[in-house]
Specification:
The protein has ten helices and 13 strands. Helix 3 packs antiparallel against helix 4, helix 7 crosses helix 9 and helix 8 packs across helix 9. The radius of gyration is 33 Å and the shape is elongated. The relative contact order is 0.09.
């Protein structure tokens, strides 16, 4: 994996790091450190980088009266974590303009293959962001013994044989995530033992990310349930107004954007009755009202959408226990 940054406006390379060509003497230090600062006509771009085979941690800061553009290239399968500490930026990924805009406190996490992107720092605010890139192998070794991660969406993606073109999630502000990232940045990475602390903190970070994603998933599910319930209420109201036309399930499904199983099972679960039985209930209640108004049985059957009088009479008897004529008390009706 390689990471490179060039500040387009300043025509300077901020960093160019090849993680495949890192030799670290374990007895001397855990990470290789790199620092660079570019100052051109009042514009400043600075980076503090720490890296070893499979992982690179970067802390970048920018200050300028113009919108600086950071042109970045990351080659090789990788997992990324990007935290915008301050400022606001626009990101174009793989030459797609205005792909997304990010604001202070945003955390972006995802998996990629080769990526080319331009990050435009929006003025007048200074900009600072923290980025962590790690190879698939590094991530797999890091998380191999974490049982909770087996249910993680991120873990599932990184275990795929091929990464999707782009997987990206922007998570809401989370104090736990911020604190862990801040701790990782502050560790003295030149101390060999701290590589173990950093790995522990990375596992903690991924746990909080997983928890955040679960929270979002549950909230989305709850919102979905509310939306689903609202649609079922709308279905019931529609049936109340249109039951005489005997609406079909496929038509209801299409009208209310619910698949047939969602419609059938959801309606039965919410109202304690199947759609078919509810329509029959509505028709039989209306049949009684029409009988009380001295409508003929044949006429009632037609009004309620029955194709045969005998079918209507059978349904009425099954529901009320007596025939329509017996209900009306007039054997001559019909």
């Amino acid at each position: 994996m390689k990471v490179k940054s060039q500040i387009v406006n300043l025509s300077r390379v901020l960093y160019n790091i090849d993680l495949n060509d890192v030799e670290v003497n374990e007895s001397e230090r855990a990470f290789v450190s790199y620092e660079n600062k570019i100052e051109v006509e009042g514009s400043i771009a600075a980076v503090k980088a720490f890296y070893r085979e499979g992982i690179c941690i970067l802390n970048c800061e920018f200050s300028s009266e113009i919108n600086l553009v950071d042109q970045m290239e990351i080659t090789g399968d990788h997992l990324k974590i990007i935290y915008l500490v301050k400022g606001e930026n626009k990101v174009n990924i793989n030459h797609v303009p205005n792909h997304h805009q990010t604001q202070t406190g945003s955390l972006i996490i995802g998996v990629d293959g080769d990526v080319y992107k331009e990050v435009e720092m929006c003025q007048p605010d200074d900009t600072e962001y923290i980025m962590m890139y790690m190879s698939r192998e590094y991530y797999e070794n890091l998380m191999s013994k974490e049982e909770w991660s087996r249910d993680s969406v991120l873990n599932s993606l990184t275990m795929w044989s091929n990464y999707p073109t782009l997987f990206r999630r922007e998570l809401p502000n989370d104090i736990n995530i911020f604190q862990v990232i801040n701790q990782i940045i502050k560790f003295d990475k030149r101390e060999p033992q701290n590589k173990y602390l950093i790995d522990l903190k990375l596992r903690e970070l991924f746990f909080f990310v997983h928890s955040s994603q679960l929270k979002i998933k549950n909230e989305t599910k709850q919102k979905g349930n509310v939306c689903h319930d609202k649609k079922l209420d709308e279905v019931k109201s529609f049936l109340d107004a249109n039951f005489m036309e005997t609406p079909k399930l496929p038509e209801l499904s299409k009208r209310f954007n619910l698949n047939v199983m969602q419609l059938k099972n959801g309606f039965k679960s919410k109202f304690g009755i199947t759609i078919r039985s509810y329509i029959i209930q509505l028709k039989m209640e209306r049949a009684v009202l029409l009988l009380e108004k001295n409508h003929r049985v044949k006429e009632i059957a037609y009004l309620l959408g029955y194709q045969s009088v005998s079918h209507f009479i059978t349904t009425f008897k099954n529901y009320h226990g007596i025939t329509p004529k017996m209900w009306s008390g007039n054997e001559t009706i019909g």
